[in-house]
Amino acid sequence: MSKSDRDTKRAFINARLLDPATGLDVKGALLSDGGKIADLGPQLFKGGVPSGIEVIDCEGQCLAPGLLDMRVHLREPGEEHKETIVTAGQAAAAGGITSIAALPDSSSVLDDVAAVEYVARRAREAKMVKVYPYGAITRNLEGKELTEFGLLTEFGAVAFTDSTKAIANAQTMRRALSYAKTFNALIVQHPEEPTLAGGVMNGGEIATRMGLSGIPVHAEIIMVERDIRLVEMTGGRYHAAHISTAGAIDVIRKAKARGLAVTCDTAPHYFCLNENSVLDYRTFAKVSPPLRSEADREAVFEGLADGTIDAIASDHSPHDQDSKRLPFAQAEFGIVGLETLFPLALQLYHKKALSLLETLALVTCKPAKILRITAGTLAIGSPADLVIFNPDSPFFIDPEKFRSKSKNSPFTGFPAQGKVLRTVVDGRTIYDRATEQN
Amino acid sequence: MTTYAETIAAGLNNHGHLLGIEGLRADQISYLLNLADGYVDQNRAVKKTTDLLSGRTVINLFFENSTRTLTSFELAAKRLGADVINMLVASSSIKKGETLIDTAMTLNAMHPDVMVVRHSDSGAVKLLSEKVNGSVINAGDGSHEHPTQALLDALTIRRRKGDLYGLRVAICGDIAHSRVARSNIHLLNTMGAEVRLIAPPTLLPAAVDRMGVETFHNMKEGLEGCDIVMMLRLQLERMQGSFVPSTREYFRYFGLDQEKLAMAKPDALVMHPGPMNRGVEIDSELADDLDRSLIRTQVEMGVAVRMACLHALTQGTLNEEPAA
């Protein structure tokens, strides 16, 4: 970012200011100065904007903190044909996301200082959204030897996870949770008992009819139950990623009631779709954990509504056509999600399960609190990472228009509401719908 | 969101393919069986060939090893006068990195009228059918469907019992991994038979009772009053996967012998899709008992049924509305 850009003052006027961190919801204006939020409120610029300040007229639309997506597969370094830090940044910007947490399973695993530093540096160079790399929990994601939590934290690792691999060994998980306390680090688990998870879709009637091997819901429930016992034992900080089952939500709800340091997230496909989406062997709906039954989908929705689930993350997993145009069992797991996270999260608001502020919290201040990132708030002095949006504007999702390199979304033609109009990072516009093609 | 039934109706069987039994109507099944009946007579005559498919090309594309199904399809096509090519891709192209779709497009460029496809992955034949112009017959895809096997089983039963309606049929053994079982469940239910599944719980897939069947873990209970007993092959690698502990124990509790068969109706008949593991799922003498075993008849019916399928797909008669 150039020096002059840093010094630029920008006034966002005629906005509906929404700050999920404080519950603020008023008409007013916001001033950014040097990339930070300098002032905001209903009285600001009532008498006009002084000269020398760039004016952005929000035309009455919503202005909120930019989204933090806490689960993104970048694919760089190593699989740049699927996605790069630049294309992921463009996709995120179009999706109203200003910060992403990058999972450590690019083909070279983020399990040492150099790899973590590389991602952080490439992201700075790309000058798009902010990228916070996760560190791997174990070397080469093998579930055996711990990585250097302390050093990786110093070099920018925001939390630790073995990405789409579960820490299966109970002793390893115990040590990880325990050792992480030294640095107050967060352990993020892919909660799936691998010996039960050999299948390719949800276990049940549809898998039986399609002749596909199923993954029972118990694969997730058992792992969450085990991990919660280990959290009790160690006192570590634990986060369960992409929860998909009613049973696991119930277990987490009870653990929270007992006062344990346990949080969890889910992805939009777990409350917008169910296992019927894989009928006809549609590999774009093949995802890990698998899309579950309708009862589980309802439970995820309910878990978001009652606060058991703390955050919504896209679990953005780009795959090229060659990885998906295969017989179902051979196709890769994963769904792209950066450009659908926001409108699909807004389903909670449109279906009247949560208020607009409560819905925003799930993709802004709540994941920021879990990862301890300064984001997701309009507090004065925090980064001017903003999204201007219309929550009601209806459209049909069209993956062909995605900026992501990969189009593997099962949401083609899905009716959604909520359009991003402008995305701002450190006061600087990185996406402006008015100047884009669609 | 489309319902399961809509997906089946829209996705299968209406583009001149035979991808599965699920979604076929009773009148379509009867039509195929009636057509096959005629071909049984032709196959027993001295002159076994016609020229119905003269000038047409049939490619048997097998990604999985098979002797009897491949031979049966080859003979069926030749007896209808088609030019037949067998392609065994189990080990060649796939190892060179060619995808299923590449293979399909390559062969499609040679203008086959029918492709008969077997693949070890469920849904693979459907995927291939979306990329080709001719008709596709599913010769077995993973654990999903094996429609011509169910049709030949039905023809075999119908010729001995007169009708499928109201019969009590037990399917015994490794249901979880069996495409034969799934196709038979769909066909028998569509035609009004009562279907029972008999297997240890480890060999029954999840929620299989939702497919309109009754399940049993005790062979004698399950066989009670049955008209037909269909045995399935137990893959010997199931022992390593700890589905069952040993062939010895399996035969003791789930192998078919005269003693267990005595629980079925006195005129109950025994079937097996082959190849058999004698002494594992079926007693050797029982398998050869011509009064009880239909196993060799099944092989004969296989050719006739496959001729009927080739006939119906190439002449476009499978999807004609039933006569009023």
Residue share in helix of chain A: 25-40%
Structural class of chain B: alpha/beta
The whole-angstrom Rg of chain B is: 19 Å
Instruction: Please work out how many helical segments of chain A DSSP would assign.
Output: 15
Let me know the number of strands of chain B.
Answer: 9
| Low-confidence spans of chain A | none
Separation of the first and last Cα atoms of chain A: 27 Å
Largest sheet of chain A: 8 strands, mixed
The main sheet of chain B comes to: 5 strands, parallel
Give average pLDDT of chain B, whole number.
Answer: 91
**N- to C-terminal distance of chain B:** 34 Å
How many separate helices of chain B?
A: 12
Strand content of chain B: 5-15%
Write the layout of secondary structure elements.
The complex is a heterodimer of chains A (438) and B (324).
Chain A: H1 3-7, E1 9-19, E2 24-33, E3 36-41, E4 54-57, E5 62-65, E6 67-72, H2 85-94, E7 97-102, H3 113-126, E8 130-133, H4 149-154, E9 160-161, H5 170-180, E10 186-189, E11 201-202, H6 205-210, E12 214-215, H7 218-234, E13 237-240, H8 246-257, E14 262-266, H9 268-272, H10 294-305, E15 311-312, H11 321-324, H12 341-345, H13 347-350, H14 356-361, H15 365-371, E16 386-396, E17 415-425, E18 428-432
Parallel strand pairs in A: 1-4, 1-5, 6-7, 7-8, 9-10, 10-13, 11-12, 13-14, 14-15
Antiparallel strand pairs in A: 1-2, 2-3, 5-16, 16-17, 17-18
Chain B: H1 4-11, H2 26-44, E1 57-62, H3 68-79, E2 83-88, H4 100-108, E3 114-119, H5 124-129, E4 135-141, H6 147-161, E5 168-172, H7 179-190, E6 194-198, E7 214-216, H8 219-223, E8 228-231, H9 247-254, H10 258-261, E9 269-271, H11 284-288, H12 295-315
Parallel strand pairs in B: 1-2, 1-3, 3-4, 5-6, 5-8, 6-7, 8-9
Helix pairs in contact in B: 2-6, 2-12, 3-12, 6-7, 6-12
